[in-house]
């Protein structure tokens, strides 16, 4: 029977069942005990003129350079042995090309309410975003996880934008129109401010296959 909201590849209920404390209380408790708890939550996406991100379960464009930037960003860690928790909605994971896996330095987590077993290419399955946060911020994974990268789609982007630990949005501006059926959620650009000269992120407009695009980072101002 499906009892836990977290399923590890080949294992059920790997974590103790915390009695749903608010995240803040949990952070305070774990910090007192010396645990490294709070993890930055970062979104990464590419969106076209009307903020479209997908069509028929796929990316609407083919921009290998942009995809390489995405890959480099989510796989970067500060020290050997550290890993990023990369969070996929079920459709995004299943539509990602096979050739992308395994992702270096990444633990793949898929979100789904329907699935009852960890699908191929994922290490963990969670039924809700709260379980993702607990998994990353409590032992044992809190010792390994550096950043929670949210890879979409719309629902998980929305939830992560609203989370207090969310500090950055990497949002490539695809400077063209594409027919899309999935969209990046609206966010407050007075709260998340566009950065200039953000480390590791080229400011110049790029062009590939006749399509112009620009990497952008939005940072949450305190
Ligand atoms: N341009 C970009 O940067 C970018 C990035 C990501 C995705 N995309 C595109 O966007 C499209 C996919 O996005 P999408 O929004 O349609 O689907 P999605 O988020 O990838 O998958 C939706 C499914 O994920 C599960 N899910 C999502 N949030 C959940 C939550 N908080 N709790 C539990 N389960 C959750 C549910 O699965 P169940 O139905 O199994 O319960 C839901 O039906 C594709 O076209 C993809 O190519 C583009």
TrEMBL record:
Keywords: Methotrexate resistance, NADP, One-carbon metabolism, Oxidoreductase. It catalyses: (6S)-5,6,7,8-tetrahydrofolate + NADP(+) = 7,8-dihydrofolate + NADPH + H(+). PROSITE patterns: DHFR_1, DHFR_2. The keyword Lyase does not apply. Residues 40-220 form the DHFR domain. One of its GO terms (molecular function) is dihydrofolate reductase activity. Its EC number is 1.5.1.3. Pathway: Cofactor biosynthesis; tetrahydrofolate biosynthesis; 5,6,7,8-tetrahydrofolate from 7,8-dihydrofolate: step 1/1. One of its GO terms (cellular component) is mitochondrion. GO terms for biological process: dihydrofolate metabolic process; folic acid metabolic process; one-carbon metabolic process; response to methotrexate; tetrahydrofolate biosynthetic process. InterPro entries: DHFR, DHFR-like_dom_sf, DHFR_CS, DHFR_dom. It is an enzyme of class 1 (oxidoreductase). The keyword Chaperone does not apply. Belongs to the dihydrofolate reductase family. This is Dihydrofolate reductase. It comes from Carassius auratus.
